[in-house]
Amino acid sequence: MLHVHPITSLDHPALQPYLTMRRQEAHREQGIFVAEGEKVVRRLLQSDLGVVSLLVHEPWLEKLEPWLAPRTEEIHAFVAPKAELEKLVGYPMYQGLLAIGRIPAAATFSDALQRNPSPRLFVAVDGLGNAENLGSLVRNAAAFGAQALFVGETCSSPWLRRAVRASMGTIYDLTVVEPVSLATTLQNLRLAGVRCVAAHLRANQRTLSQTDLRGDCCVVFGNEGHGVSPAVLAVCDEAVLVPMANGVDSLNVGSAAAVFLYEAVRQRGLV
């Protein structure tokens, strides 16, 4: 059930997450994240994730009703003219629609294996600090059927506002594991029969077309500037490159993920 509250004062405690949009680490500590824009908010409302509240320009209220139909809990929507909403959050709002969602309970290594049947297709990220690049990778991972995302300890969070926005809300569909040590987790994946393949530029490595991705595998992507770290690379089964034209030495990490994962689903006969 949707409860609508016209904004008459900024003192309402439920507005605090919107007043602290630039304090995203504080949001993480509270176990919440920001969803922004029509598609990202709609996916949130239609997902299994918890919803704390909505901040909307009044014309959105009618559209929200069918999106909320499957939900039984009370959800509070705070309403104001778009110009007032922009003053509240501190930046221009293209669509005038935000939501606060609840970050799901942390998944474990075992959850990733138990929830997802073989042939498994996992993605791991190492040292990826740009939230928008991480979100782009997540979107491509979801598009090509990746089931779980392992976020290394030196990475940006996939629940930051810009990451969620760049993912177009597809982060809601993945099992997200944030291990204390990505290298140790990859070793454990290998022990469980999951091959770990690093996307990395190295002179003696195989090309993507020479690599068998049909069985359980986890594709590891690194920092765009330096690639996969030596510690993580050392525990992978192999390093694989995408051949490129002369003069081009790398791809954007989101593009690299799309190329690798398309090849995986192609080999599995899914496209």
In words, what does this structure look like?
With 271 residues, the chain is α/β, with parallel strands linked by helices. The chain folds into 2 domains: 101 residues, Ribosomal protein L30/S12 (60s Ribosomal Protein L30, Chain: A, 2-Layer Sandwich), CATH 3.30.1330.30; 159 residues, SPOUT methyltransferase, trefoil knot domain (Alpha/beta knot), CATH 3.40.1280.10. The chain has 11 helices and 12 strands. Strands 8-7-6-11-9-12-10 form a 7-stranded parallel beta sheet, sandwiched between helices. A 5-stranded mixed beta sheet has the order 1-4-3-5-2. The protein is elongated, with a radius of gyration of 20 Å.
Q: What CATH first level of the largest domain would be assigned?
A: Alpha Beta
Name the quaternary structure: single chain
- CATH superfamily of the largest domain, by name, is SPOUT methyltransferase, trefoil knot domain
Distance between the termini: 41 Å
Topology pattern, helix = H, strand = E:
EHHEHEHEHEHEHEHEHEEEHEH
CATH topology of the largest domain: Alpha/beta knot
Mean pLDDT, nearest integer? 92
Which value, in Å, is the CA radius of gyration? 20 Å
DSSP strand count: 12
Give the second-level CATH assignment, the architecture of the largest domain.
Answer: 3-Layer(aba) Sandwich
- How many strands, what sense, and barrel or not for the largest sheet? 7 strands, parallel
Number of helices: 11
Q: What is the number of independent domains? A: 2
Q: What is the overall shape?
A: elongated
Given as residue ranges, the uncertain stretches (5+ residues, pLDDT < 50) are none
Look at the helices and sheets and give the structural class: alpha/beta
Q: How helix-rich are the residues, as a percent range?
A: 25-40%
% residues in beta strands: 15-25%
